UniProtKB/TrEMBL annotation:
<keyword id="KW-0808">Transferase</keyword>
<dbReference type="Pfam" id="PF17167">
    <property type="entry name" value="Glyco_hydro_94"/>
</dbReference>
<keyword id="KW-0328">Glycosyltransferase</keyword>
<dbReference type="InterPro" id="IPR033432">
    <property type="entry name" value="GH94_catalytic"/>
</dbReference>
<feature type="domain" description="Glycosyl hydrolase 94 catalytic">
    <location>
        <begin position="48"/>
        <end position="341"/>
    </location>
</feature>
<dbReference type="GO" id="GO:0005975">
    <property type="term" value="P:carbohydrate metabolic process"/>
</dbReference>
<dbReference type="InterPro" id="IPR008928">
    <property type="entry name" value="6-hairpin_glycosidase_sf"/>
</dbReference>
<protein>
    <recommendedName>
        <fullName>Glycosyl hydrolase 94 catalytic domain-containing protein</fullName>
    </recommendedName>
</protein>
<dbReference type="GO" id="GO:0016757">
    <property type="term" value="F:glycosyltransferase activity"/>
</dbReference>
<dbReference type="InterPro" id="IPR012341">
    <property type="entry name" value="6hp_glycosidase-like_sf"/>
</dbReference>
């Protein structure tokens, strides 16, 4: 019965924390950290107030919900949680695609040049839209269902029917959409538009959320790592899918490292282009390290412990070089001014080098799960300190560490809460 309590907790939150009682001082620091107590309490307060991404957004976004559904399970009944998931499935396209976000029909703002809204006969209340430059919506929904089922134990949800398909069948249908409509045969990987790391703003167009005639298509680490995680989740939830999807998953993993990993520089290449780069020849894009995509790649099991160590060292160096507040720094160096048409995508602005706890927190989780507990604790401190300093979870921080964007960004609350849980689980382990 060794570590039984840990195993039970891990089944609930998906942890793989190091079980060695190596550092009693660190354990005491974790359990007595005042910022951890404040952050967890504040996270619970924030998540009680709704499911939209933050106070600057009206929609429920699947890429955000994926990162706080486990936190929501602490304060909401499971029926409420899965109703949000049902809406995404009811709005699923006839090719299997998943929309980015949904909103009540009466609150949808219809303007020329704005979002294109989609409706289905299955969903009477909500309408939704899709930022087509990104390729993580399907993967995010699969991951969300996995987290919901793992957290609540509601395995029967997979057998529930939406229209003529069960939830389990719709999960697989969403993955088939990526193979059928977002697949680069040349690379054996899924493609998206040229965005900044995990971002959903492409290089061209003032707004930049839709595929257009100016789109430069590419394969990148974030989208493919997200699909790998989703496939692992789906095969665990629905074992009969393994026969078809395990070889596909293994090939995506192999092809990701073959085409996107730069062994010489020990980092991921930002983009491998399908129809040419949008940037000037003299610009060396491969100087940029994508922090967020690297964190998700670690979650997908793509990097060895030595590669994780080197990646973390590079992130810390980037924080020092930029003056940013944490390793949530989206990337370093940022794209120079003018590389993105969107006015918010200036150097160190928004997704172009902004500091996002939403992804920094995921890196902390992966450090703990891969045994880098002391490093995780150290790198988490500036993230939790600014929660208390600013009394909230802001969407992102400037390079000067000033909060900006939504002040109730639930994705940040979700990833920090889970990161603290993982550290506390480690600290509570007692060796025999």
């Amino acid at each position: 019965m060794k570590y039984l309590n840990l195993i039970l907790v891990c089944l609930l939150i998906g942890c793989k924390a190091n079980t060695k009682n190596e550092n009693p001082v660190l354990k005491e620091q974790i359990l007595s950290n005042e910022y951890f107590t404040f952050t967890k309490q504040k996270a619970l307060e924030v998540v009680k107030t709704g499911f939209n991404a933050g106070d600057g957004y009206g929609e429920v976004w699947i890429r955000d919900y994926n990162t706080f559904i486990e936190l929501s399970a602490e304060v909401y009944p499971k029926e409420t949680l899965k109703e949000n998931l049902r809406v995404f499935f009811r709005l699923q396209g006839d090719d299997g695609n998943i929309l980015d976000g949904f909103i009540p029909k009466e609150k949808a703002v219809h303007t020329e040049g704005g979002y294109t809204y989609y409706e289905t006969d299955l969903e009477p209340i909500y309408t939704g839209h899709k930022n087509t430059v990104e390729t993580d919506h399907e993967s995010s929904l699969v991951q969300s269902v996995y987290k919901y089922v793992t957290k609540t134990g509601d395995i029967e949800f997979l057998n529930e029917k939406i229209g003529d398909k069960t939830i389990a069948e719709r999960l697989e249908w969403s993955m088939e959409f990526l193979l059928n409509h977002r697949w680069s045969k040349e690379h054996g990987l899924i493609w998206g538009a040229t965005t900044a790391d995990w971002g959903d703003v492409q290089h061209c167009h003032n707004w930049g959320v839709y595929l257009t005639e100016c789109t430069k298509y590419c394969v990148d680490i974030y989208d493919n790592a997200m699909m790998l995680i989703a496939l692992d989740n789906m095969m665990e939830l629905v074992p009969k899918t393994k026969l078809k999807w395990k070889p596909i998953r293994n090939n995506i993993s192999k092809n990701t490292m073959e085409h996107l990993w730069d062994e010489e520089n020990k980092k991921f290449i930002p983009h491998v282009y399908l129809n040419g780069s949008p940037f000037p020849e003299e610009f060396n894009e491969n100087e940029i390290l994508y922090h967020g995509g690297t964190a998700v790649a670690i979650e997908a099991g793509l990097l060895s412990k030595e590669q994780i160590k080197v990646s973390l060292e590079k992130m810390i160096e980037n924080v020092k070089a930029s003056g940013a507040g944490s390793i949530g720094l989206t990337m370093y160096p940022p794209y120079p001014k003018g590389m993105f048409e969107s006015p918010g995508m200036v150097p160190y602005g928004y997704q172009n080098g902004g500091d996002w706890t939403w992804f920094g927190g995921r890196m902390i989780q992966q450090l703990v799960e891969n045994g880098f507990v002391e490093e995780a604790y150290q790198q988490l401190q500036p993230m939790v300190k600014r929660v208390k300093d600013n009394n909230g979870f802001y969407e992102w921080y400037t390079v000067e560490n000033k909060p900006t964007g939504s002040g109730t960004f639930r994705g940040s609350a979700g990833v920090l809460y889970k990161a603290i849980q993982l550290l506390e689980n480690y600290a509570n382990i007692k060796n025999e």
